[in-house]
Every structure is written in C-alpha cells, then in structure tokens.
Amino acid sequence: MLAVASLAALVVSVQQVAAHGGVLYYSNGGNWYKGFTPYNTPVGQVTIQRPWNAYDPILDATAPTVSCNDDGSSLPAGQQLTATVAAGSSITAYWNDPWPHPTGPMLTYLAQCPGSTCTGVNSNTLRWFKIDEAGLLSGTVATGLWASGKMVADNNTWTSTIPASVPNGQYLIRFETIALHSMPAQLYPECAQIEIVGGGSRAPTAAELVTFPGGYRNTDPGLVVDLYGQAAQTQTTYIIPGPPLYGSGGSGGSNPVPTTAAPGTTAVPTTAAPPPAPPPAPTAPAGTVAQYGQCGGQTYSGPTGCVAPYTCTVLNPYYSQCL
Ligand SMILES: *[C@@H]1O[C@H](CO)[C@@H](O)[C@H](O)[C@H]1NC(C)=O
Ligand SMILES: [Cu+2]
C-alpha cells in the first residue's frame, strides 16, 4: 500500500515537472552554481538562488510573488550565498530540460540592495532595472521565433551580460521567461544574489526603475497576446513588458521600444544635485491619448482618440495603442 501511494505521488510530481519549471543552475566566469531545489526543504540547502517552492507559473503579473517567485525570501545567513560577478561579464541561467514553452519573451533585471548584503532583504522592497530583453525575434506572433524558443534551442539557457557601467554593489538578478501559449500569460521569474565588482558609475535613471509587483500590469500589451487569433497570423511586432532597457533609448531586439519617456515621467540625471523638478508636461486635452497609450481593446473603456500624428492601432483583441 505504501509503495502504491508513493508511486502516485511521484507521478503527480513528474507531471508538474513536465508542465512547468524554473531556473535550476547558473554559470558565470567559469563558475557553476547550483540553484535551489524546489519541492524540498530549505534546511541544508546552500545556494546563491533565492528559494522558490513550486514549478507553477505566476498568472497574476501584479502578485507579490512576481519579484522572485513564491516566495523568494532569502535562506538564512550561512546558507544564502552571493556570487561575485564582474561587470561586463555574462551570466547564464539554466531552465529545466526541456523547457516546454517556446513562445514568449526573455527578460533579465537587476536590483541593488541597501547595505552590505542582499541576504534577508525583501525583494518586494527593491527597485529593478532591466538589463536584457528579447521578444519576437523573427516571423509572426503566431509562427515566428520567440526568445524563449531560442532559449530552448540553446540548451534551455539564457545568457545576459552585466553592463560594464553598472555600479558595484550587492544585487539580486532576476531572470524571467514569460510563456504566452495560454492566457493569462505565465510568468516564471527567478532570483539569485550577486555582488557586482569592477563596475561603472551609471546608476539607473528613475524612468528605468520599477518595483515588482508594480513593473507589469495584467493589461500590458505584451501579456495579453493571443497566439491563435487572426491578427497573430500577420503581426510581426511584440511589445516587451516592463520599463525601458537600462541605458537605452532603444532595444537591441526587433521590438519597438518607446524612445521617449512615458507621459508624466522624466528621466533623472545620474550626476549632480537634482535641480527642482520640471513642471509636469501639459496634459493632453480630454479624450486624446498620447503616443504608446492604450486607445482600445475588449475590456477598455477610456478615450480612443490619439494625439496627432499618431493613430490608434489594433495590436490584438485586447489592446490597441497610439502608434
Ligand atoms: C546543458 O545544460 C545542462 C543543465 O541543464 C548542463 O549540465 C550541460 O552542461 C549543458 N550543456 C552544455 C553543452 O552547455
Ligand atoms: Cu508550464
């Protein structure tokens, strides 16, 4: 009887493994780091990764767990390690093999911790900036090559470079893949602790920083993609969710990224004492929507007219945008 019960439990756990997963290892500069082992007690686990307890996706992009998975709090000091990582070097995250979801973006974020260690720091209190992003690499939304498809092809790994300009310090690095094969989108974030050395002096700007939760809305165009609808057959653009890329003004990928700050936000200079905040930009007349603003969609009830010269463009049934 006992053997039968154990077998049933094993079958359930194997099915979970087959359906979803997360980051199991990291590598950087020739060093190999084993991640946390979910479904196991944290007792005795020693790793740079923040603990996470299930292979399940996060389906609410505003959930507290969106920062570092469920629940992402650190191991006790002594068990929670921090990898030393050189600015300018690349760091690779290894998802379980095979990663089952080849349709969606890949994103990598950093958040600096106050004080001398990230151990014990609540990831929900940090401000994150995006150092890497890739979405639809080629083809159409329905049948094209997605960044997560490339991740699967590359031995279920994604490699991001720590920008050389990032200041030294204690950071959480947050690798994320988002799977779009069903709605709501499935978010798979995972965090690890790193100390960046040999870095630069460009702090992220205010416009580049977000909190998690806070960085995404469930209505973000990149989270409400219908892969199976009519529009996806011909659509070749995909808007990656989250803030503008650190140090950007543009993206390295094929995705349109706003090159101007969102209305009402102002990039803060990184050096010198801040001058008094400039007066807010004049608000658009009622009933008009600024560039990149939402102007339509199935559950949308706001204004639908765009500020000249932009036109309201249907990106999918759930989201139209002034472009
Ligand atoms: C592929 O990933 C596995 C971990 O999933 C790792 O052990 C192996 O070394 C990787 N292979 C290559 C060629 O990098
Ligand atoms: Cu899954």
Automatic annotation (TrEMBL):
Q: Which range is the signal sequence, renumbered to this chain?
A: 1-19
Task: Give the region (Disordered) as residue ranges.
Answer: 249-288
Q: Does the keyword Secreted apply?
A: yes
List where Low complexity composition bias occurs.
Answer: 254-271
Top EC class, one word? oxidoreductase
UniProt key word Metal-binding? yes
Q: Which GO terms describe its molecular function?
A: cellulase activity; cellulose binding; metal ion binding; monooxygenase activity
Q: Name one Pfam family in it.
A: AA9
Using the record's annotation, list all stretches that form the CBM1 domain.
Answer: 287-323
Q: Which UniProt keywords apply?
A: Carbohydrate metabolism, Cellulose degradation, Copper, Disulfide bond, Metal-binding, Monooxygenase, Oxidoreductase, Polysaccharide degradation, Secreted, Signal
Its GO biological process annotations read:
cellulose catabolic process
Where located? Secreted
Q: What is its EC number?
A: 1.14.99.56
- Comp. bias intervals (Pro residues): 272-283
Provide the Gene Ontology terms for cellular component. extracellular region
The primary site where this protein sits is: secreted
Catalytic activities: [(1->4)-beta-D-glucosyl]n+m + reduced acceptor + O2 = 4-dehydro-beta-D-glucosyl-[(1->4)-beta-D-glucosyl]n-1 + [(1->4)-beta-D-glucosyl]m + acceptor + H2O
Q: What does this protein do?
A: Lytic polysaccharide monooxygenase (LMPO) that depolymerizes crystalline and amorphous polysaccharides via the oxidation of scissile alpha- or beta-(1-4)-glycosidic bonds, yielding C1 and/or C4 oxidation products. Catalysis by LPMOs requires the reduction of the active-site copper from Cu(II) to Cu(I) by a reducing agent and H(2)O(2) or O(2) as a cosubstrate.
Indicate what this protein is called per its UniProt record.
AA9 family lytic polysaccharide monooxygenase
Tell me the organism: Cyclocybe aegerita
